[in-house]
Amino acid sequence: MKFFKILCSLSFFLCSIPLSYAEESKTNKYKNWEVNQIGDLILYRTHGNIVHGHSLGWIKRKGQCNYDNLYLTYSSSHKDKDILEKLKHNKIPLKLVFPEGDKSTLSIEVPIVAVNDFGSMKIITLTNVRQDILLNAYMEKLHLVEATILKPYANLFDIPKDSWSLDGYIAAKLKAKEMCEAIVSEENFI
Predict the structure, then answer these.
(1) By C-alpha distance, which of 149, 75, 141 is closest to 107?
(2) For residue 126, what are the contacts with CB-CB under 8 A and spacing of at least 6?
(3) How far apart are CA 33 and CA 42, in angstroms?
(4) Smallest Cα–Cα separation from 92: which of 79, 111, 115?
(5) How far is CA 108 from CA 21, 117, 142, 190, in A?
(6) By mean pLDDT, which of 81-90, 110-119, 128-137, 146-155 is the weakest?
(7) How far is residue 159's CA from residue 162's CA, in Å, rounded to a whole number?
(8) How many folded domains does the chain comprise?
(9) Which residues pair with 45 in a beta bridge?
(10) pTM for the whole structure
(11) What residues have CB less than 8 Å from 168, skipping those under 6 apart?
(12) Residue 140, phi then psi, degrees to nearest 5
């Protein structure tokens, strides 16, 4: 059963991979984070505190083990679901808040790369933003991040705000890098 797709468009990240639970390798759990290998990709993520199906995480690709590409999913049951399809490749403005860090905020724009049906809802996948040093520092140091989809897109989502635990993030990131490098080493060995 296909859950959703990631369609990638960055020059270093060309792929069209269906993510399904059947295709994932064994899940490695680190507190609230999990790490999976899906083909040549390593995905480390956590589930939303408000909507379990909202995922926040990062993707590593074989041969690009030092880079992390944002992976974020949101759901929508907006009455005009086709509008999300029409917005594919548009950049959604997000405000990231780290409540423990004196309410430190970051603003980013993330492209919609996929819109998939999931029952009566649409699941959007946002990706193609590399992790920067500041965002990684906040994620390593703090325990919670909140993301809010901003106007004019906020009204397309029933729940435009969610939060994610960062407990286990560092261990998951280290495991993801180890798994990514193992793919490359394995291929070089053969």
Answers:
(1) 149
(2) 70, 71, 72, 73, 74, 92, 94, 110, 111, 112, 113
(3) 13
(4) 111
(5) 29, 26, 19, 41
(6) 81-90
(7) 7
(8) 1
(9) 34, 57
(10) 0.83
(11) 29, 30, 31, 32, 33, 46
(12) -75, -30
What sign results for the dihedral spanned by CA atoms 118, 123, 127, 132?
A: negative
Q: What angle do CA 159, 172, 6 make, to 5 degrees?
A: 50
Domain that holds residue 40: 4-189
Which CATH number does the domain housing residue 47 bear?
2.60.40.1880
Q: How many beta carbons lie within 10 A of that of residue 142, not counting itself?
A: 16
pLDDT in tens, 73-126: 999 988 777 888 899 999 999 999 999 877 789 999 999 999 999 888 999 999
CA pair distance 105, 117, nearest whole angstrom: 32
Q: Is the backbone peptide bond immediately before 152 cis, with ω within 30 degrees of 0?
A: yes
Residue among 137, 147, 130 at smallest CA distance from 170 = 137
